[in-house]
Amino acid sequence: MIEIHNLNLAFGRKPVLQNLNISFEKGKVHGIIGLNGAGKSSFFNALTQVIPPDSGSIRFNGNALKRGRIGYLETNNFFFFHLTGREYLHIFEQTNTAFDLPAFEKLLLLPLDDLVENYSTGMKKKLALLAVLKQDKPIYIFDEPFNGLDLESNRTLELIIQTLQEKGKTILLSSHVLEPLLHTCNQIHLLQNGSFVKSYEQPDFGRIREELFQHLEVEIRNQLQQAL
Ligand SMILES: Nc1ncnc2c1ncn2[C@@H]1O[C@H](COP(=O)(O)OP(=O)(O)OP(=O)(O)O)[C@@H](O)[C@H]1O
Known about the structure:
Elements: E1 2-11, E2 14-24, E3 29-33, H1 40-47, E4 55-60, E5 63-64, E6 70-73, H2 85-90, H3 101-107, H4 121-133, E7 139-143, H5 151-166, E8 170-174, H6 178-184, E9 187-192, E10 195-201, H7 205-227
Parallel strand pairs: 3-8, 3-9, 6-7, 7-8
Antiparallel strand pairs: 1-2, 1-4, 4-5, 9-10
The chain binds adenosine-5'-triphosphate.
């Protein structure tokens, strides 16, 4: 269980996470949704100590959560110039003994001997994902992992997430597109104004679209009538 109590994070005077409280059950896949700027990446950065929170506690199985327990795929990934994909992956220690690079190379159609600087957006995302999967961690956080992936890779990633869950991993992921979350998550949590305001269990997933978009759609349609 990951237990988060009264988490606060501000950038200057701007509060981004405000007295945020939530628990994530172990071995489950948790989706995080929220508008652009809602604080999803900031929340993940706080959990991983990339940007330490101003206050609050984050515990995993009763103890303070350590950065080293998390495999973190960030939204934007940093790559060194003049390295091939294979050379980039060499930077990361392989602690996941089951990780089979040739299998993933085939599965994701990744040209590992090409320079990363010539990769497409989706290829870079897949490469960064492989660097995370090389590492055996109890928790994986995937921030916008589906961004830029083609249909086939999208499905492959959904199945990767399912497989990690079958291995008992706890997974947190965000997505701008609801569909992959509906396919992979046990729970989906709505982040709004710096805290979690609602959690949906799998049987209630059908309500999410309706609850989130119903009012919005009427409003947007009305505005578009005037604006376009
Ligand atoms: N390093 C930073 N310095 C100042 N403000 C920041 C910084 N990082 C994020 N913010 C602000 O914090 C708020 C939350 O940003 P965050 O990137 O966490 O949102 P998000 O939910 O991940 O958004 P998106 O869906 O667009 O990726 C935004 O208002 C953003 O401008």
